[in-house]
Every structure is written in C-alpha cells, then in structure tokens.
Specification:
This protein is of the alpha/beta class. The chain folds into two domains: 144 residues, Aspartate Aminotransferase, domain 1, CATH 3.90.1150.10; 265 residues, Type I PLP-dependent aspartate aminotransferase-like (Major domain) (Aspartate Aminotransferase, domain 2), CATH 3.40.640. Helices cover 35% and strands 17% of the residues. The strands form three sheets. The protein has a seven-stranded mixed β-sheet, sandwiched between helices. The chain is globular, with a radius of gyration of 21 Å. Bound molecules: 4'-deoxy-4'-aminopyridoxal-5'-phosphate. 4'-deoxy-4'-aminopyridoxal-5'-phosphate binds next to helix 4. This is Aminotransferase class-III.
C-alpha cells in the first residue's frame, strides 16, 4: 500500500516534525502531550490562540452551525451567520463604515486586501498598481503576500516570481536608521515613505506593531499619525495588517487604536477564531467598497458559515471575560518579569512589545548589536530548550534590513494569569542560559 520508508507514525505528513512531542489535549494556557507532560503555551502557537484552549462554548457554536448549515456559496445564498458576524464586528473595527470579507486565514486576507486596493483605483480610472511595504515585514506565504513581505531569506528562492513591491523603512527602535534617533524617528520614516509614494502607488501595507517579521517592534508616538497623513495626502490606501495584532493582542481590540489610526483596509486572522477554525478577514471602508463595484474574487471557503459562528463565539468570549483589558494588564506583568529575569544577560539586546505581544532580541555583541550568525540557529535552539523546560515559544528571525536575526516572540493566550507569565519568563530565562550560558 505505502511506498518507501516514512519513519513511523505521521510519516506521511509533509512537515518534518521529527523529535517533537505529540499534543494530546489542552486547556487555558496549558498544552499536554501524549506522555502527560504539561507545557505552558507562551506563544499560542504562532500567536494564534487568543481565548485559550478548550473553550467549550466555541466548540458548541461550531458544531451547532455545522449541523444547521455548514456551507453555502456566497454567490448563491446569503448566510445569516456571516451577516450577524460582520454586524457584530463592525463597531469594534477602526475602519469607517467597515465592510467585512471573511476568508480562511491571513495570507488570503492580505491577497484580498491588495486586490481590493488595486480594484479601488482601477474602478476610478487610475493606473495605480505598486504596493509599498516595509523592510523585515511578514505578510504571508502566498506569492502576493510573500512579495510584500520584506524578509530576504524567505524571498530568495522565489525571487523570479517576485519584485513588484517598493520597500519602505521599518520603525525598528532597536536598530533605528533615523539620524537623530531617538528624536523624530516617526517623522523621519514618514518622510522616507513620502518619497516612495509616486502616482503609480496603490497602497501602503504595514503592521501597526511588527510581529512575526521583526518581533514585537512598537513604533514611536509620531510614526502612525505621520504615516497616515502622508498616505492620505498622496491618495494611497493604507492597509493595516492586524493578522497578529488584532482581537485584543496588544491591549486594544485592534492595535491601530493606540494611535487613533483609521486605515482604508484592514486584515486580521489568528485571534479572530483563536485557532478553533480557519478564519481570516479582509475589511475595507464603505468608501472603498462603493468605489470598487463588482469584485470578481473568492476562495472555496470565503464567507464560511462555520467560520462566522466560530468568530462570533470568540468575540463573545473576548468581551464577556474582559480579555482585551487583561492583555494590557497581564502584558505589563510579563514585560516586568522578562526584564527582571533576562535584563542583564550578555546576549539579551532588547526586551520590547505591547500588551501580550513581547519580543526578546538576542545578539552576539551587546555593544555593536551584531546578530549571531544565522547558521548557529540560536533562536531555534532556545525554542527547543524552552520546550524541554515546559514552555512553548515562537520565534522570529527578521532584522529591519531584511537580514536574519534571533527574536523570541511571546504571545500567550489572553487568559494566561499573572502567576503563569512569571513562570513563562523564568523558563525562558533558563532556556536562554541553557543555550548561551
Ligand atoms: N500577516 C501577518 C502580520 C502575520 O503574522 C501572518 C502570519 N504569521 C500573516 C500575515 C499570514 O497569515 P496566515 O499564516 O494565516 O496565512
């Protein structure tokens, strides 16, 4: 029946996950493997799990909707569940008169938003097609999303397919290129962006707080208001990628709120369904929607009724349990614990972040901030050591100029307790010492 050697259980799965424990069950911020070992979930997978594991009411909502009507195609019938989800979401979104296009994940949402931006200009007779994005950004794995991503290592094998993106500087305070840093950095970045916004630019896409690419980089106070102004003045649509930062992760429903920014388009995923169902969202303003008119676009699982049911249930849990405020409160405790445990370490260059999205950047030399040679795979080794110590943690390998570095990225479920984040910091510090002394 089978062909060749597949190396035991799961050998037919594409991912080469040799040596990893197998998850058995999970609850709250704890995952248990098939040997009964418990792991604190320090990153909710790839910063996906927002409401915690094992929330029965979300499971029930998914099952109930699947039983009622799992699927109708949006060109054939409306879904009451999708309609209700968009209406419940609308008041929470930092977008004027928002229109919600549900898809299956972040990359699909990014592709959808970029096509919306192009369609918006085209419908008004403008040949704007260039997208501007930032160095070190991560926006997804599909070809369009990879092209707007600014990570050289990820792009290199596929370069013949890429190249339509113009690259702006990233607000990365630890490695800020602004000449007068730390003064006036945001304004400096906005001026650099302005120079790139020629008449052929359709959109500027960026994360409010850089997550998977650079690792929890929070811009200064000036950055977002100045960037939003520049985009508006140049007629360029602002696309906020809130795939990682949305749904309470940073202590606000959406991270744009920290700076009062109202993007023309917004994409989200991850925390929208907390991993209970594949769900992403591309949102545009009513103005953009009206201008686009007919939009020929779609995926097999766009506007999925079960996805909408999962999204509604997650919204309810986030609201009823006050998890957005908890993210701000417990995030501050996590920050303090990380600084206490890791602050003086010889390889810890920077501890940063906002809410329950935190990054610890490891460097070979504190004085020069030189990263470790990527071949040493320092972040990956710390992640493995952390797992041995009962902590699941994610990492990012981006530096602002597209080079690779080592950042440990923390984004635990928003239900994590103050006591648990203290243990997260303690285990992470032990893992860093296991690898780097
Ligand atoms: N944008 C950002 C900011 C992300 O963090 C990610 C996923 N890490 C994506 C887009 C792509 O989302 P997905 O993996 O769901 O396709």
């Amino acid at each position: 029946m089978s062909s060749g050697s597949t190396g035991g259980a799961g050998g037919h799965v594409f991912a080469r996950a040799t040596g990893l424990p197998t998850a058995s069950h999970a609850g709250g911020a704890v995952v248990v493997d098939t040997d009964g070992r418990e792991y604190l979930d320090g990153s909710g997978g790839a910063v996906v799990t927002s409401i915690g594991h094992g929330v029965g009411e979300v499971v029930d909502a998914i099952a109930a909707q699947a039983r009622k009507v799992a699927y109708v195609h949006p060109t054939a019938m409306r879904s009451a569940e999708v309609d209700a989800y968009a209406d419940e979401l609308a008041p929470l979104l930092p977008v004027d008169d928002p229109r919600v296009y549900p898809v299956s994940g972040g990359s699909e949402a990014v592709e959808t938003a970029l096509k919306m931006a192009r369609a918006f200009h085209l419908a008004q007779g403008r040949e704007r097609h260039v997208v501007v994005a930032r160095g070190g950004a991560y926006h997804g794995s599909t070809r369009g999303a990879l092209d707007v991503s600014g990570r050289d290592g990820l792009r290199a094998p596929y370069l013949p397919w890429l190249g339509a993106t113009r690259r702006a500087t990233a607000p990365y305070e630890y490695r800020c290129p602004a000449p007068e840093h730390p003064v006036g950095c945001g304004t400096w970045h906005a001026r650099r962006l302005d120079e790139l916004l020629t008449d052929d630019v359709a959109a500027f896409v960026a994360e409010p707080v850089a997550g998977a690419g650079l690792g929890a980089c929070v811009p200064d106070e000036e950055y977002w208001p100045a960037v939003a102004r520049v985009c508006r003045e140049r007629g360029v649509l602002l696309v906020a990628d809130e795939v990682m930062t949305g749904f309470g992760r940073t202590g606000r429903w959406f991270a744009c709120e920290h700076w009062g920014v109202r993007p023309d388009l917004l994409v989200a995923a991850k925390g929208a369904s907390s991993g209970y169902w594949p769900l992403g969202l591309a949102v545009c303003s009513g103005r953009v929607r009206e201008a686009i008119g007919a939009f020929t676009h779609g995926f097999t699982n766009s506007h999925h009724a079960v996805g909408a049911a999962a999204g509604r249930a997650v919204l309810r849990v986030l609201s009823e349990r006050g998890l957005v405020a908890a993210s701000e409160r417990v995030g501050a405790v996590l920050d303090a614990c990380l600084r206490e445990r890791l602050g003086g370490h010889h390889a810890v260059g920077d501890v940063r972040g906002i809410g329950l999205l935190r990054g610890v950047e490891l460097v070979a030399d504190l004085a020069t901030r030189a990263p470790f040679p990527r071949a040493e795979r320092v972040a990956e080794r710390v992640v493995a050591a952390a797992r041995e110590r009962g902590l699941l943690v994610y990492h990012s390998t981006g530096c602002a100029d597209g080079r690779d570095g080592d950042v440990l990225l923390l984004g635990p479920p928003l239900v994590i307790t103050e006591e648990q984040v203290a243990v997260v910091a303690e285990r992470l510090a032990l893992a860093v010492r296991d690898v780097l002394g």
